[in-house]
Design brief:
The protein is mainly alpha-helical and 102 residues long. It contains 1 helix and 2 strands, in the order ββα. Helix content is 86%, strand content 8%. A two-stranded antiparallel ribbon has the order 1-2.
């Protein structure tokens, strides 16, 4: 009870037709897959170089980040100190003005 159809090789069942079409389709897309495979092989080495470079700069970048954080903390301390100096100078100015009034 096979349905028959005409193919290049003659009459075949629909089951066999599927088996014939599939290899033909695979043959048709094989160059595309080969091109993708070749491209992937071609970019493998440059990508590995990028990965190595990124790994190499990771530690220096972390050190820079730590240094910048320390600078930020130091600047915050300087700001606080300057604010205290400003307050002290204002108090001295007030004291001098009071003494001059006497």
């Amino acid at each position: 009870m096979y349905n028959s159809c005409q193919s290049q090789s003659g009459l075949v069942s629909t089951t066999k037709k599927t088996r014939i079409i599939l290899p033909a389709t695979l043959q048709a897309i094989k160059p595309t897959f080969q091109a993708v495979k070749t491209t992937l092989k071609a970019i493998k080495t440059p990508l590995q170089a990028v990965k190595t470079t990124l790994k190499a700069i990771e530690t220096p970048l972390q050190a820079i980040k730590t240094t910048l954080q320390a600078v930020k903390t130091t600047l915050q301390a300087v700001k606080t100190t300057l604010k205290a100096v400003e307050t002290t100078l204002q108090a001295l100015d007030t004291t001098v003005q009071m003494q001059n009034e006497l």
